[in-house]
Amino acid sequence: MSIKLVHSQEPTGKAGVRQRVRKMVRPDGGLKCPNCGCQTSLTTVNGAFVLKGRKQGGTVIHKDVCSECWRRGIIVSMLPELKPVE
Ligand SMILES: [Zn+2]
């Protein structure tokens, strides 16, 4: 039995696109998923109701998570890690 070294190859297809999108520069202050590079955020609310024509109440279940990852069952926060002010 012998072990061979294999050079890393450029990812092709979906993996290549995903890696390219992840490397793209984020617009200043814009939200971007660190997992897939998607820029669409999602907030889910449970139990909201309409009163006098306006939506009210409800409990926020997920806030500012990546919509694309959420569809795949992964919860990824799109907000950057906030550092405490010193
Ligand atoms: Zn994502």
Overview of the structural elements:
With 86 residues, this protein is an alpha+beta fold. It has a domain at 35-80. Helix content is 19%, strand content 23%. It has 2 helices and 4 strands. It has helices spanning 13-23, 67-71; strands at 41-46, 49-51, 54-56, 59-66. A two-stranded antiparallel sheet has the order 1-4. A two-stranded antiparallel sheet has the order 2-3. The radius of gyration is 19 Å and the shape is elongated. The structure holds zinc ion. Zinc ion (ZN) binds at residues 33, 35-36, 38, 66, 68-69, 76. Residues 33, 35-36, 38, 66, 68-69, 76 line the site of zinc ion (ZN).
How do the helices and strands line up, and which of them pair or pack?
Layout lengths: L12 H11 L17 E6 L2 E3 L2 E3 L2 E8 H5 L15
Antiparallel strand pairs: 1-4, 2-3
Quick overview:
By secondary structure, the chain is α+β, with helices and mostly antiparallel strands.
Low-confidence stretches: none
What is the H-and-E element order?
HEEEEH
Bound molecules: zinc ion
Mean pLDDT: 86
Instruction: Describe the largest sheet.
Output: 2 strands, antiparallel
Which class do the helix and strand fractions yield?
alpha+beta
Shape summary? elongated
Radius of gyration: 19 Å
Biggest sheet: strands side by side, in what order?
A: 1-4
Throw out a few tags for this protein.
86 residues; alpha+beta; two-stranded antiparallel ribbon; 2 helices; binds zinc ion
